[in-house]
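User: My collaborator and I are trying to settle a disagreement about how two of our proteins should look. Neither of us wants to argue from intuition anymore, so we agreed to look at predicted structures for both before our next call. Could you fold the first one, then the second, and keep them clearly separated?

Assistant: That sounds like a sensible way to settle it. I'll keep them separate. The first protein:
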Amino acid sequence: MGRLKSFIVSQVLQIRKGGWQVLFRKMLHIVFFVPGTIVIVVLRLVRRWVHIRFGQLLSHRIGHYAANTEVYLCGRDAGRHNKKFIDLFYNCEPVSNEQLYRMWKRVITINPLVRYLYRFTFFLPGGSEHRLQMGGFLDRDTQALMADTLSHLVFTSKEIVSGRESLGTIGIPDGAPFVCFHARDSLYLGEKYPEHDWSYHDYRNSGISNFVPGMEELVNRGYFAFRMGSLVGQQLMADNPRIIDYALNGNRSDFLDIFLSAHCSFFISTGTGLDALPMVFRRPIVYVNFVPVEYVASYVRNSITIFKKYWLIGEHRYMTFREIIGSGAGRFMDSFEFAGNGIELRENTADEIREAVIEMDERLKGAWRPSREDEDLQGRFWSLIPKSELNGVIRARIGAHFLRSNRDLLE
């Protein structure tokens, strides 16, 4: 009786605070409750023959919307999901990218009514068997299934024509190679979700200026370069007209975000949500300023990673990778964890980023010749990364120049 009274009081308080909108939403819940409950009971009865599950797509964050969904589909194709399963989904709001939404609807069933069916499963015994988990570490393709499969996202012929026309409008000749680059900063989350304090994520931020010498090098090698981002806090200081500040030049759109990420020669980023797009389209990626170390995208084929370095303030030295992993700092995901342990994260230099993109360009052109020492350094690094829910099959590489210049970090 006490719980019922507490529940009723809670509902009244929420309605008083939220007004008519909250009241209307709760009335909808009541309207849908009875038929929804009947549907769930029927689903349990027919589960012997067909098992229907409901999943919440993490569509409010573009990285999870792309990666978690693609990893699920790869797992389904690999036989990880029983053939009896019929999976239905709904989006979180707001949807981060409408073009991605349109493309996913071609592959899976997405319907807003599934939200209510998903919620009803919490009220019935055994309801968890009708819920499909899409969060957690499910954006990590630890078995590297993507490395040997094609993307589930496909453009229509009309979209391809539209994308090429848009590139022409920007001034990119048809068939000209281009790269995309992006540095995470605080503006996006601060603008989209101002009610939250996102400062714990600040350790992931990077400056854009150190990217410019690498982009100038790629331009000299025949590429155009697009600076990506829907909301960015730093102006790009680059005079070369082939380095395009797409994030701020007025041409940015949900469609082009996806089209550029899917058709670039490779993508340079900092381990943030946006680089899930080239990953699911199987485009090569250069990860720079990557942190935390143990979250390295080890399963991404045709990727090169270089890390922020962990400076021990009290000891005036960098932590070795062995120390980072052994101390647990390789899994720190909060700015205050780093600060509380006396660790200052230091960004990659312009030269380190430049060398990493050169390596990717030469690898893609078949001109890269790794030395025996390079392969030894790769082996030494990966031997330090434990097999876990984060890392399994290794398909990635660490930047050769970065490892040569930081041999002491492998001790």
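The second protein, kept apart from the first:
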Amino acid sequence: MLAIIVPTLNEAANIEALLTKIESALAGIRWEVIFVDDDSQDRTRDIILQRCRIDSRIRLVHRIGRRGLSSAVVEGILSSSTRYVAVIDADMQHDERLLRPMLEAMQGGECDLAVGTRYTTEGGFGDWAERRQTISQIATRLSRLVVKVNLSDPMSGFFVIRRDLFDTVLRGLSVQGYKILLDIITSSPSSLRIREFPYVFRSRQHGESKLDPLVSLEYLLLLLDKMVGRWVPVRFILFMTVGGLGVIVHLAVLTTLFEVASTKFVIAQSIATVTAMTFNFFLNNVFTYRDRRLRGFGPVLRGLLSFYLVCSAGAVSNVGVASFLFVRDFSWWISGVVGILIGAVWNYAASSILTWRKA
């Protein structure tokens, strides 16, 4: 039996057509489709639930407060019990007719992982714009930094995998961004036997692409996590980067108020501190904690106030630790650096728990 995981977000116009195509492609094969919906605001779930009531092969996982294609795929696979699992997009840009030969290759022991690829003479990108193809090719080249197997399309979101193999890589997954195949391959403790199946990427007929500028950042974070994540959490690196930008903002505001506007230093410093903390909060909310992003006036205001509280406590710990070391004859710069690190670690840990706690 084959379980087909389909992440969805506002794909109401594609659900019925996709199910019809899957049913035709897998005639004579036992299958189930598990839709993992990230709280769509159109009729996606209504349409899926209508099919669930009349067809036991259709199931729905409704996620609230969580976003992301990779994490949706993971939850969908974990909700299945079949020996083989496929992942396919809801927009019908993948060729569902390949599901049968991909499954047969897996059942025949030819491979551990069957992947749909666009990077062959038989495959292609359809009517993708040249700019988008170039971006995809650059991303594929960058993946060579972490992918050590011979695979032409590690960026593919269309594949079939054995469930027992997925279980062996599960705890090593980053679940960053939307390139779950790349995550699986780089998390495998052993070399995988991979067979590629060429197909031409179709044009989206209904709905809108879910890709946005932050997707590129998520991809880079995934690569970074696979390179250094075992030593330093990538989220912490991003948090510290935002903090560094906050220092620049702080100094710019302080200079403007104190040097240009002749404001009293205490007032200028206070305004600069609050401005930098506010800047850091909103930048972290968009980038560092995108998967837990606070939305709406109430949640954002409460998050901002808790972030102020966390950073104020972090400043106290920073000064306290630095002073403690300095009076014990440590050099001023060592005392200062240790204080900064202690404050940064506190801000990161406390804000993860209090400000951007998991849903």
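Some points you might bring to the call about the second protein. The chain is about 55% helix and 10% strand. Residues 234-354 form one domain.
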